[in-house]
Amino acid sequence: MIELDQLTKTFKQKDGAEVRAVDAVSLTVPKGEICVFLGPSGCGKTTTLKMINRLIQPSSGRVLIDGEDTTRVDEVTLRRKIGYVIQQIGLFPNMTIEENIMVVPRLLGWDKKRSRERARELMAMVQLDPGKMLTRYPRELSGGQQQRIGVIRALAADAPVLLMDEPFGAVDPINRESIQNEFFQMQRQLGKTVIMVSHDIDEAIKLGDRVAVFRGGKLVQFDHPDALLARPADDFVQAFIGHDNTLKRLLLVRAGDAATMAQSCSPGMPLAQAFAIMDEADVRHLPVVDDAQRALGYVTRRDARAGQGVCADAMRRSWRPPRSTSTCASCSRACTSTTPAGCRWWMRVGSILGKSRRSRSPTISARAARAGTRR
Question: Where is the ABC transporter domain (predicted)?
């Protein structure tokens, strides 16, 4: 857990005037959560972040990590217990990727075998082949790959706290989304206490368990993402998050959570029973699926009503795949953007296990209503 208690930083200008960059900020980040510091440039969010590991010394106030006042801990010892991801990646160009990842573990006295095993474990978490990548130098990697290394280097010593200063801002949008997703999955496995600086409201909503909005060195609002979008504290927060806050709330709802399983039948189901299901659901056809929920074909309402026997006897196999599909992990806002392209108000959502489960998501209006009741 990280606690900031009336944390303040004042800088002196050349003319002797004092500027309060951070003004009496107090907040608590529970253990295992991600808190995003959000705000425009110059609002004090990075200064606040750097006071946590004492790269900048506070003028007043306290920082407590798991109840311990950081001013009572040696600076070097403190920083080695906190992972830190800087904005411009900062890999050492004269070191291999493996050596870069092993920097802090080696400083902490880990032996080479343990350090190398940790490097390989972390590489696997971000879908990079350790056999090919660990012996390369940073210049031999793409920007997205370098950014991934920067993140896992901060995790190498298994520090309980991770500080991230706009960690994904230096990569292109496609790589940024991919790295964000990988980091989110890593966080679910590792459960670190993370404070991240960002100016991107979508990133804050997507990754943050809590969001702290700064303005002029002051903490304007500290809340869960959904509460922030639903109830902005003032006009500044409303303007910063944008007026499409209802659509942004759809970022908080995963397609798999919003989807409902569509009616289906097995090859051995009697046609009379299949017709009864279609009649009750008011549909013209019913997918025929196997035990693994993979679509084999479909039975029409007309065939089921007129036929005898089981669904396999009347099954048609010329199944046209839907234009729009989604994974269970996709956010509902992405689904909302995609469904009109298929000229439909619903979308097929595939199973996270990779099986072609045929499920039907709610309408766009229903998604918005669901987002409005979250938390």
Answer: 2-241
Q: What is the C-alpha to C-alpha distance for residues 265 and 293, in angstroms, rounded to an integer?
A: 10
Contacts 24+ apart (CB under 8 A), 73-78: 78/53, 78/54
Looking at the structure, do residues 238 and 103 belong to the same domain, yes or no? yes
Q: Which residues pair with 83 in a beta bridge?
A: 162
One domain, residues 294 and 230? no
- Residue 339 resides in a domain: no
Q: What is the DSSP string of 220-260?
A: EEEE-HHHHHHS-SSHHHHHHH-S-HHHHHGGGSBHHHH-E
Residue 102, domain extent: 2-252
Give yes or no: residues 311 and 228 share one domain. Answer: no
Distance from C-alpha of 319 to C-alpha of 327, rounded to nearest angstrom: 20
Distance CA 153, CA 147 (A): 10
Same domain for 158 and 277, yes or no, is: no
Number of domains, the chain: 2
- The answer to whether residue 273 is domain-embedded is yes
List the pLDDT tens digit at each of the 375 positions of the chain.
999 999 999 998 888 888 999 999 999 999 999 999 999 988 999 999 999 999 999 999 999 999 999 999 999 889 888 988 887 778 899 999 999 999 888 888 899 999 999 999 889 888 888 888 999 999 998 888 888 888 888 888 888 999 999 888 767 777 788 888 888 888 888 899 999 999 888 889 889 999 999 999 999 999 999 889 888 999 999 988 887 666 665 665 666 555 666 688 899 999 999 999 998 888 888 888 888 777 788 899 988 888 789 999 999 875 555 555 555 555 555 565 555 554 444 455 554 333 333 444 444 444 444 444 444
- My answer on whether 119 and 230 are in the same domain is yes
- Give the domain CATH number at 267: 3.10.580.10
pTM of the model: 0.68
Answer yes or no: do 239 and 196 share one domain.
yes
Is there a single domain that holds both residue 127 and residue 272?
Answer: no
